[in-house]
Design a protein that fits this description.
The complex is a heterodimer of chains A (about 260) and B (about 350). Chain A is built from eleven helices and nine strands. Chain A has about 260 residues and is α/β, with parallel strands linked by helices. A seven-stranded mixed beta sheet of chain B has the order 3-2-4-5-7-6-13, sandwiched between helices. Chain B has a five-stranded mixed beta sheet with strand order 10-12-11-14-15, with helices on both faces. In chain B, about 40% of the residues lie in helices and about 20% in strands. Chain B has about 350 residues and is of the alpha/beta class. Classes of the chains: A alpha/beta (about 260), B alpha/beta (about 350). At the A-B interface, strand 1, strand 2, helix 4 and helix 6 of A face helix 3, helix 4 and strand 9 of B.
Chain lengths: ~260, ~350
């Protein structure tokens, strides 16, 4: 007897389904980009924690400016770089809600550096998800604060000359030094194993918030195949070979009283 | 029985916010308004009413905190002075675009640039003609006494929530710093979470199963929809203009010559009217309380009995343009301005009107 597709698509054979905390709106991210997976794991964690009705997310300016179209929770779209200030107020007026920002490297580490550092330093009890792809993707591939030395972009067409353009900013290491950050981790989402680890870190970040522990900061190093002008596969390989040495994966600040 | 107290304008404003049931204040020090934050930090309303008071890392952060708090349907506010208000303009544009209620107090000092810490009224254009980018308007209230500094947080929140629009309170260094007696009324309680949800069903309070998610954004990429949104905003501003114009007249019944002035300048003109009346000149004063919406019709109506107008401002002439538009060139409109932190005296203002009457 021949098996048809219909026979295979049965509830009992279902091994994975899209979380209900993602809407049906098609993602606006480029195919191959890590943002889609990063969006998904954040929403899966919130779904698993059962806190949709208690969650308020802050979308940035950049590739994830439209995150509020995909994330099925109440969302605020902030001015460029200001998400941590917006989140500060949301958490202060609603201390019992789960508040997170989802920001890229231009938003968080260039225009929003002050807001990032001061929200971290105050130890706001929020979660910051920081997607670092070393480039301004939305505006067409300009140099970002995290662009690597000699890396080409549309505003560093001959490569980032650190003598002229300055060095990449490792803001995650920087915020880890501040007394207000409780948990700081750097992850990736380009392989199933990396996704599992990243999701664990995101989960930890929101669990910390539930326990009023202070600020949790999870960086996700991502590819930008469009901005880097590579195929998705090549961009992931390039990320492993170039981004990871500069931005090593793993936990950067782990609470003393815990083993993760 | 109302409580009577002697207070500074900035302190009265701060007390007014607590008693107006404010949920949060986000500030940053700048002269001449730092007493607002200082007063709130000394009084610690977070221990009594639960009102959040936070010193932000910058004026920019403070206005974006207001954006966050307002998105949640809470009664939130900030205060600053001219250079700081310039920094807030991006945030104010976002607040107006996303139709968020809030209060922004500007205790104006002289400019441009870092300018001076002395009083001025040179931010009129910034307040009523835009300030930030894009097609939008704020409701603008102009207090001229310490009592109004106390009263306007309550009025401001009422208007802000009625129209889902930012409210600017355009004060100045005199009103902020001077002391007067103030009648304090009974405090309005803060809204409970149930009241917040009921009063602001659009707010980000957490998506529950029986409603779609709430999104606060000013981003509308499709041009035709953005145009519709702006037209909707302007229809709202029209309703505000129909319903919310506020002004006060002083000795206008038989007036032949009129001062138009707001804030501190109105106080100075009130005295100048008395000086002129003693000399037999029938002078009067119209004081706009709302600068946006502007009392155009009231000024136009008065222009039928008035021979000429003197607009007094602590600026090189900003509101005078709106008075000229209001009277449609039917009568002469003169401007008397001192700027850079210089405060005109009632006598020089009265003398200026006298000169104009004599045709000098």
């Amino acid at each position: 007897m021949q098996i048809s597709t219909k026979d295979i698509i049965k509830p009992e054979n279902l091994v994975y389904t899209k979380t209900k905390l993602l809407t049906d709106t098609p993602l606006s991210y480029c195919p191959g980009c890590g943002h889609g997976t990063a969006n998904r794991i954040v929403m899966e964690v919130l779904d698993e924690m059962g806190v949709q009705d208690k969650t308020i997310g802050i979308a940035p300016v950049g590739c994830s400016v439209l995150a509020y179209n995909f994330m099925n929770v109440d969302m605020i779209q902030a001015a460029h770089g200001r998400a941590p200030a917006v989140a500060t107020a949301v958490k202060r007026v609603f201390p019992d809600k789960f508040v997170f920002t989802y920001q890229g490297d231009g938003d968080l580490a260039a225009i929003g550096t002050a807001e990032t550092i001061h929200a971290c330093n105050r130890g706001e009890n929020i979660t910051i998800i920081f997607v670092n792809n070393g480039i301004y993707g939305m505006t067409g591939g300009q140099m970002a604060p995290t662009t690597l030395p000699n890396m080409k972009s549309s505003t560093s067409p001959y490569g980032r000359d650190v003598e002229i353009m300055g060095h990449p900013l490792r803001i995650t290491e920087l915020v880890a030094q501040l007394p207000g950050t409780y948990f700081v981790s750097r992850q990736a989402v380009h392989t199933p194993a990396a996704v599992r680890k990243a999701k664990k870190a995101v989960r930890k970040a929101f669990e910390n918030q539930k326990l009023n522990k202070g600020l949790s900061f999870v960086e996700i190093v991502s590819n930008c195949n469009s901005g880097w002008k590579m195929t998705p596969n090549d961009s992931n390989k390039w990320m492993e070979e170039n981004m990871f040495p500069a931005y090593p994966l793993g936990d950067i600040k782990v609470p003393k009283d815990e083993n993760i | 029985m109302k409580e009577l107290k002697l207070m500074k304008g900035n302190e009265a404003f701060a007390e007014g916010t607590i008693r107006a049931g404010a949920d949060a204040y986000f500030g940053y020090p700048i002269t001449p308004q730092s007493e607002v934050l200082e007063y709130l930090m000394a009084v610690r309303p977070y221990e009594t009413t639960g009102m959040v008071v936070l010193q932000a890392e910058s004026e920019i952060a403070a206005i974006n905190m207001v954006y966050g708090g307002a998105s949640c349907g809470k009664r939130v506010l900030t205060s600053s002075s001219s250079p700081g208000i310039s920094l807030k303009q991006e945030g104010i544009s976002y607040l107006a675009g996303a139709e968020l209620p809030c209060i922004i107090l500007n205790v104006v000092r002289g400019g441009p640039g870092l300018g001076t810490i002395q009083p001025s009224q040179s931010d009129y254009f910034q307040s009523v003609k835009g300030g930030g980018h894009g097609d939008y308007k704020c409701i603008v209230l102009a207090p001229s006494s310490v009592q109004e500094m106390y009263d306007f947080p309550k009025l401001g929140f009422e208007l802000a929530f009625k129209y889902r629009n930012p409210v600017l309170i355009l004060s100045d260094g005199i009103i902020g710093q001077m002391m007067e007696k103030v009648y304090l009324d009974e405090p309005t309680p803060r809204w409970s979470e149930e009241e917040v949800i009921k009063n602001s069903p659009w707010a980000t309070t957490g998506k529950v199963v029986d409603r779609e998610r709430n999104i606060i954004t000013s981003l509308i990429l499709e041009a035709s929809i953005q145009e519709k949104h702006v037209i909707k905003l302007y229809e709202k501003y029209k309703v505000i203009e129909e319903n919310e114009i506020r002004y006060e007249t002083f000795q206008c019944e038989d007036a032949e010559y009129l001062f138009v002035a707001y804030g501190s300048s109105a106080r100075i003109c009130q005295k100048a009217v008395q000086i002129l009346r003693e000399k037999g000149i029938k002078a009067g004063l119209l004081r706009p309380i709302t600068l946006l919406p502007y009392p155009k019709k009231a000024i136009n109506d008065l222009s039928k009995q008035i021979k000429s107008i003197v607009v007094v401002e602590m600026s090189m002439g900003q509101m005078v343009e709106d008075v000229m538009l209001a009277v449609e060139c039917k009568i002469p409109v003169n401007h008397y301005g001192r700027t850079g932190g210089v405060i005109p005296s009632p006598k020089e203002v009265a003398d200026f009107m006298m000169q104009k009457i004599k045709g000098e």
